[in-house]
C-alpha cells in the first residue's frame, strides 16, 4: 500500500498552514509527523486520510500498483485520534458488533480475542460512556491495530494511557509495521522512536 502527497497545501481563511509538501508513505516504513502545536500535524492526517480536501496539491492512494479513489480509501484504513468520537450510548458489545460490519478482524482473531487483547473482556456489557479515558483509548487503538486494514493513522496515541498502557501501545504498534502503512502524529518521542521516517511540518512552510 502507498500514499503519495504532491505539492500539498492547506489554507484556512487567509492563512496557509503548510504548502508545497511532497511526501510518500508505504507499508513497512512507519512515519512520524512532528512539529509544534498548531503547525498542522492533525490537519495533514485529515488530508492524507481523505477526510478533508487540500487547498492545493493532491493525495493519491495505490495498492499493488492499482489506484484507489479517495471515495474508496475509508475501507482500507483505521484511525485513532483524540477527536474521534465513539458511540457512547452503545455497550461495548453493541459497538463492536456494529463496527465489524464494516471492518474485519485480522486473521486468527475472534471478538473474544480482541476483547482480551485490549483488556476489556469484563466490560462488554457496559456502556462506553462509563469507560475511563484510558479504556476508551485502548479501544480506539485496538480497533486500529487488530484489523485487516492496510493503513493506520494515529494522532497522539498514548493520550490518557498510563505507563502500563503505553508499554501495551509500543508492543502492539510495532507489530503492525510489516502489514500497514503506519503514520503517527506526535510530539512525544517515545510514541514514534521506532519510525525511520520523520516529517517535521515547519520545514515545509513558506
Sequence-ordered SSE layout with sheet pairings:
Elements lengths: L1 E11 L2 E12 L4 E4 L6 H8 L7 E8 L2 E3 L8 E4 L11 H8 L11 H7 L15 H13 L5 E5 L7 H12 L6 E5 L3 H4 L4 E4 L6
Parallel strand pairs: 3-8, 3-9, 6-7, 7-8
Antiparallel strand pairs: 1-2, 1-4, 4-5
Helix pairs in contact: 4-5
Keywords: ATP-binding, Nucleotide-binding, Transport
GO molecular function, one term: ATP binding
Organism: Roseivirga pacifica
What does the model show?
- The chain has about 210 residues and is α/β, with parallel strands linked by helices.
- The chain has a single domain (about 1-205), classed as Rossmann fold, CATH 3.40.50.
- It contains six helices and nine strands; from the N terminus they run βββαβββαααβαβαβ.
- The chain has a five-stranded parallel beta sheet with strand order 6-7-8-3-9, sandwiched between helices. Strands 2-1-4-5 form a four-stranded antiparallel beta sheet, covered by helices on one side.
- The longest helix is centred in the last third of the chain and has 13 residues, at about 135-145.
- The chain is globular and about 50 Å long.
- The two termini are about 30 Å apart.
- The mean pLDDT is about 95.
- Keywords: ATP-binding, Nucleotide-binding, Transport.
- InterPro entries: AAA+_ATPase, ABC_transporter-like_ATP-bd, ABC_transporter-like_CS, ABC_Transporter_VariousFunc, P-loop_NTPase.
- Pfam families: ABC_tran (PF00005).
Amino acid at each position: 500500500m502507498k500514499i503519495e502527497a504532491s505539492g500539498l497545501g492547506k489554507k484556512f481563511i487567509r492563512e496557509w498552514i503548510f504548502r508545497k509538501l511532497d511526501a510518500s508513505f508505504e507499508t513497512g516504513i512507519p512515519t512520524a509527523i512532528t512539529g509544534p502545536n498548531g503547525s498542522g500535524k492533525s490537519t495533514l492526517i485529515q488530508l492524507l486520510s481523505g477526510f478533508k480536501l487540500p487547498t492545493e496539491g493532491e493525495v493519491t492512494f495505490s495498492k499493488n500498483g492499482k489506484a484507489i479513489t479517495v471515495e474508496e480509501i475509508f475501507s482500507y484504513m483505521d484511525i485513532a485520534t483524540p477527536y474521534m468520537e465513539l458511540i457512547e450510548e452503545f455497550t461495548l458489545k453493541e459497538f463492536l458488533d456494529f463496527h465489524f460490519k464494516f471492518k474485519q478482524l485480522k486473521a486468527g482473531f475472534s471478538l473474544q480475542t480482541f476483547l482480551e487483547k485490549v483488556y476489556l473482556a469484563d466490560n462488554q456489557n457496559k456502556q462506553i460512556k462509563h469507560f475511563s479515558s484510558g479504556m476508551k483509548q485502548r479501544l480506539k487503538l485496538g480497533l486500529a491495530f487488530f484489523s485487516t486494514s492496510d493503513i493506520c493513522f494515529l494522532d497522539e496515541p498514548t493520550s490518557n494511557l498510563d505507563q502500563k498502557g503505553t508499554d501495551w501501545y509500543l508492543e502492539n504498534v510495532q507489530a503492525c509495521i510489516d502489514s500497514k502503512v503506519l503514520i503517527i502524529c506526535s510530539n512525544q518521542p517515545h510514541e514514534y522512536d521506532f519510525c525511520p521516517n520523520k516529517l517535521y511540518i515547519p520545514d515545509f512552510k513558506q
